[in-house]
Design a protein that fits this description.
The protein has helices at about 5-15, 15-20, 35-45, 70-75, 110-130, 145-155, 240-250, 315-330, 335-350, 355-365; strands at about 1-5, 30, 55, 65-70, 80, 100-105, 135-140, 160-165, 185, 190, 195-200, 205-210, 220-225, 255, 265-270, 300-305, 365-370. The two termini are about 10 Å apart. By secondary structure, it is α/β, with parallel strands linked by helices.
Length: about 375
């Protein structure tokens, strides 16, 4: 493994941060402040593709690559912020050739001690090679209940708890359901301007989980399917960002998306077979499968669940998360499981159909955060 960071990180945390990182590996690439993704990719590709790349720092240290979003006119995300660009030596952003994982830090107002705590947590897990407890929880929006049920059926020995929101909400959740679990699948909703996670009933969003409720997450490997949960904007800290809160509280890794996500529930216009995307103001995870006219009357839409399709029961974020957990359960590290899941997604889909716009967006918007070698 090698580390990639920039002079920006040293400016924030002083040169002592480098000796802290050298506990993990002596192989550290430090790029100049303001380096472009193209410059950084070129530096990364001086290493063998078999060497995992650990990006240390948020988007103010190592910027995301901004890919064109082919679904912009339907979901409102102008670009896809992705680390996939750093995982390839070709032009295909959908099929990573290298393990890439990012360890983000606080942006805007920050505390040096918070980032050092995250590093210490990861180093203790890495150096001890601590094994997990093989316990898992699904926390599932009521809008996606069939997905949670399917996961629990497929991974019975792992996901013994399947909470659904509603009726489970932030006000009544049993926090032991999500604390100190080796595997967490948070199949909830998110919003572009909120770091909370939400359940859903019909078109009503209900608060399901907040960053200050995470508590102990020692050794957890987390997949958050909610929209924007991996969005690192200019003001993120352990108190307002669910991703950073998990890492601060001891999680090994978190898979999360920088943009609006899509899954197995579709909305169609009444008396038609045309899927349509919800208004941009609607909090994410409601969806579409192809280009179609924008919705004009959200409340009149009919909910259709294509989950029972026997030929391809999972799609987009649900399918990617399924492959990721399947790989973890086979003994792969977070980095291996994530890289392989993306390649399996593409390879398997090519056997049945083709990569379409939402598949492309899904493969790019989900990034791996935390540490890749556990």
């Amino acid at each position: 493994m090698f580390i990639v960071t920039s002079q920006n990180l040293i400016a924030k945390y002083t040169s002592n941060i480098i000796s802290n990182l050298q506990r993990f590996t002596e192989d550290i690439i430090i790029v100049p402040s303001g380096s472009t993704p193209e410059y950084i990719q070129s530096a990364i590709n001086q290493r063998n593709l078999s060497d995992p790349c650990w990006i240390v720092g948020g988007s103010d240290t190592i910027p995301f690559y901004q890919a064109v979003n082919p679904f912009f006119f339907h979901d409102g995300d102008p670009v896809i912020n992705t680390d996939s660009f750093y995982a390839i030596s070709t032009n295909d952003l959908t099929m990573p050739q290298r393990i890439v994982c990012r360890l983000p830090d606080e942006q805007g107002s920050f505390e040096i001690s918070n980032f050092l705590t995250i590093l210490d947590n990861l180093y203790n897990l890495f150096s001890s090679q601590q094994t997990g407890n093989n316990l898992g929880t699904i926390y599932n929006s009521g809008f996606f209940s069939q997905v949670g049920t399917y996961f629990q059926q497929q991974f019975t020995n792992i996901f013994s708890i399947n909470d659904e929101s509603p009726p489970v909400l932030s006000t009544n959740i049993n926090l032991t359901d999500i604390q100190n679990k080796e595997y967490l699948f948070l199949n909830l909703n998110g919003g572009a301007n909120s770091y909370n996670l939400y359940g859903q009933l019909g078109t009503d969003m209900m608060l399901a989980l907040t960053p200050n409720q995470i508590g102990s997450a020692n050794g957890s490997k987390v997949f958050i399917s909610a929209s924007y949960a991996g969005n690192l904007n200019t003001e993120t800290n352990i108190f307002n960002n669910i991703l950073l809160s998990f890492l601060f509280n001891g999680a090994v890794s978190v898979v999360a998306s920088t943009e609006m996500t899509f899954g197995n529930i579709y909305l169609i216009e009444p008396n038609t077979n045309y899927p349509i995307s919800p208004p941009i103001s609607q909090i994410g995870n409601e969806v579409t499968i192809s280009e179609a006219p924008e919705a004009t009357n959200f409340s009149s839409m009919q909910q259709i669940n294509y989950f029972a399709n026997p030929n391809f029961p999972l799609i987009q974020s649900d399918y990617l998360s399924y492959l990721y957990f399947q790989n973890l359960f086979s003994g792969q590290t977070s980095g291996q499981a994530f890289m392989n899941a993306k390649n399996q997604y593409v390879q398997n889909l090519n056997l049945t159909s083709s990569i379409e716009k939402l598949d492309y967006k899904t493969l790019l918007e989900f990034n791996l955060y935390g540490f890749p070698l556990i």
